[in-house]
Design a protein that fits this description.
signal; two-stranded antiparallel ribbon; about 30% strand; alpha+beta; globular
């Protein structure tokens, strides 16, 4: 249900964090799993029976059998020159003022259809930033921090949480129709 870029959300999130005394390091590089090397218009990588998609997660719930289900919305994730080019094509008036994609990335979501997908019981969840303690001062980026599916569900569905995890894109790996890996994409 989200359209085009999340830079405004990322910037707003950053402003909130700075307001509470948190400021991420500006020269931090994103690891390979948080920002896949193949970040092009086709964000699908296929190997035998595995596919990797970039998505927004609209809901996280357990189904009748107790398996975790994600309601997903597939997106296209662009970075670098390709992000700048697409951003300027869709926002020609921004060329002089901004010059390119804000924060170096651009999200396109032309198809807002949602697909509900089940996770494997042993699916890997790698997070970059989430509300670990309930204190803004404790929020820091820990690249590819492994958490359990139960912890992910609790964090995603925490109405009192300091971060809205639905604002982040995720890279999911699907094997034989179920999600086997979820990687949160850090957005500056």
């Amino acid at each position: 249900m989200k359209k085009t870029t999340l830079s405004m959300i990322g910037t707003g999130l950053l402003a909130i964090m700075i307001g509470f005394g948190y400021a991420p390091a500006s020269n931090v590089l994103t690891p390979a799993s948080a920002a896949p090397a193949e970040q092009a218009s086709d964000t699908t990588k296929e190997t035998s029976t595995e596919q990797t998609y970039t998505i927004f997660i609209n809901s996280v719930e357990k189904n009748d059998t107790g398996a975790l289900q994600l309601e997903t919305d597939r997106i296209d994730w662009y970075t670098g020159e390709e992000a700048d080019k697409l951003f300027l094509e869709e926002n020609p008036d921004a060329a002089e003022e901004i010059g390119g994609a804000p924060d170096g990335y651009y999200i396109v979501n032309e198809d807002i259809s949602e697909v509900t997908m089940e996770t494997a019981p042993n699916a890997e969840v790698l997070m970059q930033l989430y509300d670990r303690t309930g204190n803004y001062e404790d929020m820091e980026i820990n690249w590819d921090e492994l958490i359990t599916l139960d912890k992910f569900e609790a964090q995603y569905n925490n109405p009192l949480g300091l971060l809205d995890l639905s604002a982040f894109p995720y890279h999911i790996t699907v094997k034989d129709g179920v999600i086997v890996k979820i990687v949160q994409q850090y957005i500056p």
